[in-house]
Amino acid sequence: MPVLSVAILGVIVFGSFFGHIVYPVSASLLQPEAILLPPSFSHPMGTDRLGRDVLARVIAGGQVSLIIGVGSAFVASLAGLMIGVSAGFLGKGLDKTIVVLIDLFLTFPTFFLLLALVSYVEASTWVLIVVISITGWMGMARLIRSESFGIAQKPFIKILMMAKVPLGKIMLKYFTPLLAPIFFISFTFGVSGAILAESGLSFLGIGIMPPQMSWGTILADGKEVLDIAWWLSFFPGLMIFGVTYALITLSDFFQSRTNENENHA
């Protein structure tokens, strides 16, 4: 188990949701006498152009970024699981339709598709979860589809089919547990990808809007004064890097364990 990645992820998640208890400073408090102060004992991550405490803002923004990341990754992975199992199990006719649908979505660059969707609606936490989910289910569906073909050929599945066991029961009780490792791997990749997508949209000014904040919006606030106030962009960027690194490392670990189990089997 990659202990360092688990520790990094645990600290960031705990700090984002419970850090305000340990560090009870308002993320919106304006302090005209404390504008662009560098990191110090009183302001561990410095202050921004309005005198707001960056650590308090990183804590508050982390909640939004993590909720969007986990929410959109879960919805996208669940949709990909359902679509992939249906394509790999329910027959060639449905499979061809789903393959065409996946290929149609994949023809559009993901980030430009995000830009197009967000431009028609006012961005918020739940809107971004839905929009990022729409652009993130295809990879999961293709992985599950290919794996489902192999599972469908196993003898015990054919016996269940001959015994007239309901298709829904076969898919939920027998397919889903075998696909759980792939689901988790895709989910961990999806969380990091969703956080990066939200950060990119917010950095461009079309993601989370004030008074809400995310790591992406905090990062964008610091780009204009990066030469004199490096800490404004460094610390939210460090949080994004930490979560992405930890999740990708964990995903690689679980993928290697899954491959080992398959080889032993």
UniProtKB/TrEMBL annotation:
Localization annotation: Cell membrane
Membrane topology designation: Multi-pass membrane protein
Transmembrane segments: 66-91, 98-120, 126-144, 178-208, 228-248
SUPFAM superfamilies, per the entry: MetI-like (SSF161098)
Keywords: Cell membrane, Membrane, Transmembrane, Transmembrane helix, Transport
Pfam families: BPD_transp_1
Similarity field: Belongs to the binding-protein-dependent transport system permease family.
Protein name: ABC transporter permease
Lineage, broadest ranks: Bacteria, Pseudomonadati, Campylobacterota, Epsilonproteobacteria, Campylobacterales
